[in-house]
């Protein structure tokens, strides 16, 4: 099965955001990954609802919205209204994760659960069948351009075993430090979706870089 690619718009040129979105529209990317940061759950602030709405207005690819925020339940409906087709919340930020997943589905979006590097995949054992995507952080969340955490490969394998054992259809998404050097091994370990930000937008030809990632 072909790997899916979700370029992270966080690494784009914000002064030319429409142009960057249109570039992704013409690429072989499957999603546009939108990182929302509140400066509380992670030590950085990115953008919020108005920018997400602007991205959606020009995008022809589905928006994969990653909420790196405290108390994400407050904003599920709002992000759905501005175009989120997948909404990922952090396990570490949700007191009642099952209820949050139900709320995302009720809004008609696909549900995602993001896991920080220190969080074991076993924490998802009772809910994995209800989750559409697990966004596994392969760097500490909050900043782009970080070094890939090598333990991620083993963690993917454990998550894949859990998905199979529960008869789930959950996809595994890897977010952080993805490049052409580690992408084949990530796919081999069981990843379905690769998020790439700096590696795509800082490359000489982002269209070719996305195509190369897609073809691994």
From TrEMBL:
Q: Which reaction does it catalyse?
A: D-ribulose 5-phosphate = D-xylulose 5-phosphate
Q: Which NCBIfam families match?
A: PRK05581.1-4, rpe
Q: Which InterPro entries match?
A: Aldolase_TIM, Ribul_P_3_epim, Ribul_P_3_epim-like, RibuloseP-bd_barrel
Which Gene Ontology BP annotations are present? pentose catabolic process; pentose-phosphate shunt
Q: Where is the active site?
A: 35, 175
Q: What is this protein called?
A: Ribulose-phosphate 3-epimerase
State the taxonomy lineage.
Bacteria, Pseudomonadati, Bacteroidota, Cytophagia, Cytophagales
Any binding details for the cofactor? Binds 1 divalent metal cation per subunit.
Report the GO terms under cellular component: cytoplasm
What's the name of its gene?
rpe
Binding residues annotated for substrate, in chain numbering: 8, 66, 142-145, 175-177, 197-198
* GO MF entry, a single one: D-ribulose-phosphate 3-epimerase activity
UniProt xrefs under CDD domains = RPE (cd00429)
């Amino acid at each position: 099965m072909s790997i899916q690619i979700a370029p992270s718009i966080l690494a784009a040129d914000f002064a030319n955001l429409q142009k960057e979105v249109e570039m992704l529209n013409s690429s072989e990317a499957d999603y546009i990954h939108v990182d929302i940061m509140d400066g509380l759950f992670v030590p950085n602030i990115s953008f919020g609802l108005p920018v997400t709405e602007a991205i959606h207005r020009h995008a022809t690819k589905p928006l994969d919205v990653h909420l790196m925020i405290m108390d994400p339940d407050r904003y599920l409906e709002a992000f759905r209204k501005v175009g989120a087709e997948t909404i990922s919340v952090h396990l570490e930020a949700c007191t009642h994760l099952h209820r949050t997943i139900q709320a995302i589905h009720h809004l008609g979006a696909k549900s995602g659960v993001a896991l920080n590097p220190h969080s074991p995949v076993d924490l998802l054992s009772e809910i994995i069948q209800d989750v559409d995507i697990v966004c596994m952080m392969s760097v500490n969340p909050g900043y782009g351009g970080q070094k890939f955490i090598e333990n991620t490969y083993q963690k993917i394998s454990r998550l894949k075993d859990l998905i199979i054992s529960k008869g789930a259809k959950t996809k595994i998404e890897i977010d952080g430090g993805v490049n052409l050097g580690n992408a084949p091994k990530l796919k081999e370990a069981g990843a379905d979706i690769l998020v790439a930000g700096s590696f795509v937008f800082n490359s000489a030809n982002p269209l070719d870089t996305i195509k190369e990632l897609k073809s691994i």
